[in-house]
C-alpha cells in the first residue's frame, strides 16, 4: 500500500474517548509531525505501547491524549497503524482527523481498513463479513452466530473441502496418465465417495443455517383482531411497557405500530394493527388495508378474540382471511372476565390486562417458527450471500452425480467449478466488484 489512510473509528458524539486511526507505510512519519511525549523517542518506539502526550494543532493549541503504534505486519490491516485516543467530542475528533489529512494522510473509504486486512491475508472474506455481522447485530442470536464465524471456523471447513476436491483432481490426472479401464473405475468410485462426503458437509451447513433469516432479522409477528379485543393491550404486555394507546373507543389504532423484544436470543418484531372492520373513516380504512398487508408478510399471526362475548361478523371475516395461513395462534383475551365465547381450536386463553399467560404466547411463537433448539456451538451461517453460494454448490454436486458415466475430463471440469464456487465464500475466487461491494457495507474507520 502506497498511501496513508485515516478515519475516526468511534461513533461521532460526546463520550469519554474517541479514536482516530491511520494506516499505511509512513503513518509514523505523520505522527511525528503532530504528537510529542516525554517518554517517546520515535527512533526507539515500542509497538503496542500507549504513550501519553500532546497532539498539536496548526493553531498552536494542543490535545492531551494517548498514541499507540502497531508495526507491520502485526496489525489489523497488515500495514503500520497509528491510533490516537483522544477525549470524546465531535469537533475535537474532526479537528484531529483534518490535521492528519493536512499532514499527508488521505480520508479512508468505508471499510478500507478491513479491505486492506483482507488484501494482506490477515482475514478471509467470510471473516470480514462476520465482522460486519458483529457490528450490525441487533439480537443476541445474531451476535453469537457472527462471533462464531469471526473465529475463522468457516474458512477452515471450506479449505478442507477444497483440499479434498484437489485430491480428486489429482486422481483424475493420474487416470489420464494411466488410462487402464480398471484403474479408472476404481478412481471414479473413490472420487464419488469423496464427493458424497462433501455433499453431506454442505447439506449440514445449509441445515444448521435454516433459521438464518430469523436469527438475522427476527420473527415478524402481526397482532390482528376486530376492534376493542385488546390488541394494543397485548402489545404492551408482550414488550413490557405502555407503547400502544389503549382505550375503549373502537378504531383507536389507525396505523401499524412495531416494537421489538428479544426472546431466547431471537428478536420478536410485534406489529400492532388496526382493528379489521367496515369503516367510513378514510384514515381508518387506510389502516385496515395496512393490517391486511401486514398479515400477508408476517411469519406468525396472533389472532385475538374477546372471550367475554360471542363471535361477531368482524371476527368471522378475519377467520375467513386467516384460513389459508399456516402460523396462526388464536388468543382468547379477557380471561379475567366471565367467558361467553365458545372454545376455539388450539387456543391460548390469556388476559392482556393482567399479563396472564403472556410467556406462554412467546414460547408458542418460538416453537412454531424455530424448527429445533438453536445450538450456537455449531457454525451457523447467517450471511445470505454465503448461503446462496452453498446452494449453488449443491446444484454443481447434482450435476456431478448425473455425470458419473461421463469422461474424466467433464468430471474434472465440474469439480474445478465446485472448487471455485466454494472459493467465493473465502474470497479466493471472488471478483473485485463483489469484494468492493462487501467492504462498502462497513462504516468509516473500519
Short description:
Helix content is 46%, strand content 16%. The protein contains 15 helices and 13 strands. Helix 6 (153-177) runs antiparallel to helix 14.
Structural class: alpha/beta
CATH topology of the largest domain: Rossmann fold
Numbering strands along the chain, what is their spatial order in the largest sheet?
Answer: 3-4-5-6-2-1-7
Radius of gyration: 30 Å
Give the SSE string: EEHEEEEHEHHHHHHEHEEHEHEEHHHH
Mean pLDDT: 85
- Total of domains: 3
Biggest sheet record: 7 strands, mixed
Written overview of the protein:
With 446 residues, the protein is α/β, with parallel strands linked by helices. It is 46% helix and 16% strand. The chain has three domains: 5-120, Gyrase A, domain 2, CATH 3.30.1360; 127-195 and 381-439, Up-down Bundle (Four Helix Bundle (Hemerythrin (Met), subunit A)), CATH 1.20.120; 215-369, P-loop containing nucleotide triphosphate hydrolases (Rossmann fold, 3-Layer(aba) Sandwich). Helix 6 packs antiparallel against helix 14. The longest helix is centred in the middle third of the chain and has 28 residues, at 181-208.
Main attributes of the structure:
6-stranded mixed sheet; single chain; 7-stranded mixed sheet; 446 residues; 3 domains; Rossmann fold; Four Helix Bundle (Hemerythrin (Met), subunit A)
